[in-house]
């Protein structure tokens, strides 16, 4: 026979679990992967899950590594396909297909920064901010003009 205190505790636990499940179903849950450090720069990623059946939504900003200033003129690649939707403020956003993807950020004068292979599902919202380090190994050589 269960005593009253045990029954109240079980009911409280059931209530908390049910509330958590309902809240997660309506608001989605965030899978925060955080800041990933690489030699070419860093990227900060978070994936928000939802119950939507729509294509995953991918967005973020390309920034300079030290200053965090947005970088103008960058390119985003998904897998090996170039997506030219980065605006002058370094921002990008577009829908992608569910599945495993690698995201790459590129800009002349900076190291290429590639994410790990990430699995995304319908309804996911993927936010990645890329922090690019200047590429000091390559230099622009101006041709000498004889006058």
From TrEMBL:
This is Lipoprotein. Keywords: Membrane, Transmembrane, Transmembrane helix. Gene3D superfamilies: Carboxypeptidase-like, regulatory domain (2.60.40.1120). It comes from Pedobacter cryoconitis. The chain crosses the membrane at residues 12-30. InterPro entries: CarboxyPept-like_regulatory.
């Amino acid at each position: 026979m269960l005593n009253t205190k045990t029954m109240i505790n079980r009911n409280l636990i059931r209530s908390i679990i049910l509330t958590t499940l309902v809240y997660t179903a309506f608001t989605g849950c965030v899978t925060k992967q955080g800041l990933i450090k690489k030699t070419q720069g860093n990227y900060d990623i978070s994936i928000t899950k939802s119950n939507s059946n729509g294509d995953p939504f991918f967005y973020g900003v390309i920034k300079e590594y030290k200053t965090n200033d947005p970088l103008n003129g960058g390119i985003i690649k998904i897998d090996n396909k170039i997506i030219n939707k980065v605006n002058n403020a370094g921002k990008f956003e577009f829908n992608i297909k569910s599945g495993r993807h690698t995201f790459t950020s590129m800009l002349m004068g900076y190291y290429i920064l590639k994410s790990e292979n990430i699995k995304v599902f319908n309804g996911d919202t993927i936010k990645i901010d890329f922090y690019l380090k200047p590429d000091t190994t390559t230099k622009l050589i101006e041709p000498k003009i004889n006058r």
